[in-house]
Amino acid sequence: MKTTKYPLVTIITVVYNGIDFLEDTIKSVIAQKYENIEYIIIDGGSTDGTLDIIKKYEEHISLWISEPDKGIYDAMNKGIRLANGEWINFLNAGDSYVNADVLSKIFSSNLDKYTLIYGDIIAIKENGKLLNIKAVDLKNDCSIIDGMKVCHQAIFYNRAILDNYDEKLKLKAEWKHLIKITRHEKFLPKRFDFPFVYYTVGGVGAQQLKLNQKEFRQVFLDMYGLKKYLKYYPKFIFRNIKRIIKGILR
Which domain holds residue 220? Predict the structure, then answer.
């Protein structure tokens, strides 16, 4: 990966026992035509052959580590500490860039004044169908008051505004993280009107759904306060009812 006049972009992949889906992610990174890439893989101590896949592509990987961690956000924070790039993107194991031109299309633009870059995604549903999902117009924290609304894998963070994730959370740390970033004094977003990644949509079990709701409430109260929570509460109840009905009908 040669150095050019273009900014160094660090791509971080977090994985644990991902033998069935890591290879496609790695291939999509090393296929990028953009040359100034630092690729870091953080493995949580896999025991299923994931390390064999990593070693297979080791010459294309700038750095990888394999050790037990406290969860995905601990692993992501490790990646941040190891990253040297001006821009950082988290491409989860199992997800991939839509084509080899994604990074070139993004970083051929003049991005000097921006600190966050984002785009759309193509969701891969459980039945295999593809769905093009547009990102919300991210202007401030009010743009994501209902939830993330921008796919984490389709965001490139400038190091100037990137902070660690809350490791106490299991599901909603990305949302809390983005809320904090929108309030940063240097926050200036740039949206590209094309999909960046294929994002695999997975089912949410009942136990995970309960945790998701609990953490949503926790983050909302922490970041927006009780007054706004009470204002939006009926909307949240209606949304949860829709999810339950959808789960029953599935």
Answer: 206-249
